[in-house]
Write a structure and sequence with these properties.
Largest sheet: 7 strands, mixed
Number of helices: 7
Structural class: alpha+beta
Low-confidence stretches: 303-309
CATH architecture: 4-Layer Sandwich
Distance between the termini: 20 Å
Mean pLDDT: 93
Radius of gyration: 19 Å
Helix content: 10-25%
Strand content: 15-25%
Number of strands: 15
Bound molecules: succinic acid
Order of helices and strands: EEHEHEEEHHEHEEEEHEEEEH
Oligomer: single chain
CATH topology: Double-stranded beta-helix
Number of domains: 1
Length: 309
C-alpha cells in the first residue's frame, strides 16, 4: 500500500490514481492538535474524498467535531435529528426495498447558491457485504475534455434545478423531511460550468444530476451535451469506491466530485449520519489554459523520483 510521504502526523494512503485516500492514525473526536487537523484538511484538498478509519463518534461528538471544519451549510430538505440541528440520520432496514438514499450519481445540494463545501457521512451500522459508496472526480472530467469542448463551455453558466428533489426524498419512508422541503421544487440557480477550486485552483466541470440547461442554448440543445459531460465525468478511471467499516467517517469535497450510494445490500441494516459544511458560490475559472498538475499527479511524480533515486 502506497503511503503519501507528504503527511507526517497521519497515515494517508491513496485509493485509486484519480481520487480518494484512506486516513489512519487520528482520533477526530479527541480534538487533535492544530497541525494534525491541518493535515486532515490538506488530505481532503488533495484527494477530494477521504475515509477516516476507526473513529468513535456519536451524533453529539460528531456535530462538535464537524464544527471545526467550518460553519454548517443549510439543508433545505432533510430534517435533522432531534436536539442536533446539523446531523441527519439515514437508516435502511433489512426489509426495505426500492431505491436507497443517494442512489444515482449526484452532487449534494447542487441547486443551492452555495452547495456544501464538505459533506461528511459517518458509518455506524454497515452491512457485512455491499453498501459501498462510489465517487468520481470532476477535476479529471475537466482534464479529459478537448480544447474545443473546454472553449465552448468556458464562460457559460449551467442552470441547476431542485425539481424532482422533494419527490425522490419523499419516497424514503424513514427519512425526515423539513416542513418546507417542497420549496426545493421551485429552486433554480446558475453556476459556471467550468470552475476553479478556491483553495487548490484546480479546474473542474460543474455538472450534476440536476443540471438542466446551458446558457445560450435551448434545453433540447443542452441535453446531449449534459449527457456527454455526465458520461465523461462518470468514467471508471475517475472513480474510487469506499468500502465502509463501522467507525468510518467519509468526507468529500462536494463540489469537485459526484457520488452514488450502491443498492446491493437488501436484507442488511445500514445506519449512517450525514452533515454538511458550508461551501462557496462556485467561481468561474479565469481562463481556459491547461490545468496545472493536480496534487495527485505531483504525488505520482514524487514517487517516480523516489523510485528513481
Ligand atoms: C448520500 O448521497 O449523501 C448518501 C451516500 C451513501 O449513503 O452512501
Amino acid at each position: 500500500m502506497l503511503r503519501d510521504p507528504r503527511f507526517k502526523r497521519i497515515d494517508v494512503s491513496p485509493i485509486t490514481g484519480a481520487l480518494g485516500a484512506d486516513i489512519r492514525g487520528v482520533d477526530l473526536a479527541a480534538s487533535p492538535d492544530e497541525e494534525t487537523f491541518r493535515e486532515v484538511k490538506k488530505a481532503l484538498d488533495i484527494y477530494h474524498v477521504v475515509a477516516v478509519r476507526d473513529q468513535q463518534l456519536n451524533p453529539h461528538n460528531y456535530q462538535a467535531m464537524a464544527a471545526r471544519f467550518g460553519p454548517f451549510s443549510g439543508n433545505p430538505v432533510h430534517a435533522p435529528m432531534e436536539g442536533l440541528e446539523h446531523i441527519i440520520q439515514f437508516i435502511r432496514e433489512p426489509s426495505d426495498t426500492g431505491k436507497v438514499i443517494g442512489e444515482d450519481w449526484h452532487m449534494d445540494l447542487a441547486w443551492m447558491v452555495k452547495p456544501p463545501g464538505i459533506t461528511m457521512l459517518y458509518g455506524e451500522v454497515i452491512p457485512p457485504v455491499g453498501g459501498d459508496t462510489c465517487f468520481t472526480s470532476l477535476v479529471h472530467a475537466y482534464r479529459a475534455l478537448s480544447p474545443g469542448m473546454r472553449a465552448m463551455l468556458h464562460g457559460r453558466m449551467g442552470l441547476h434545478s431542485g425539481k424532482g428533489v422533494f419527490a425522490i426524498n419523499a419516497m424514503q419512508s424513514r427519512l425526515g423531511l423539513r416542513k418546507d422541503a417542497a420549496n426545493a421544487e421551485e429552486t433554480e440557480v446558475e453556476h459556471p460550468l467550468i470552475c476553479a477550486h478556491p483553495v487548490t485552483g484546480e479546474r473542474y466541470v460543474f455538472v450534476s444530476s440536476v443540471l438542466r440547461s446551458i446558457s445560450g442554448l435551448t434545453e433540447d440543445e443542452s441535453r446531449p451535451i449534459i449527457k456527454y459531460l455526465m458520461d465523461v465525468a462518470t468514467r471508471p478511471e475517475f472513480h474510487c469506491r469506499i468500502r465502509w467499516e463501522p467507525g468510518t467517517l467519509t468526507m468529500w469535497d462536494n463540489p469537485c466530485v459526484l457520488h452514488t450510494a450502491l443498492n446491493d445490500y437488501t436484507g442488511f441494516r445500514r445506519v449512517t449520519y450525514r452533515t454538511t459544511i458550508e461551501g462557496w458560490a462556485p467561481v468561474a475559472a479565469p481562463d481556459i489554459n491547461e490545468a496545472a498538475n493536480t496534487p495527485l499527479a505531483a504525488l505520482h511524480q514524487l514517487n517516480t523520483l523516489e523510485l528513481a533515486a
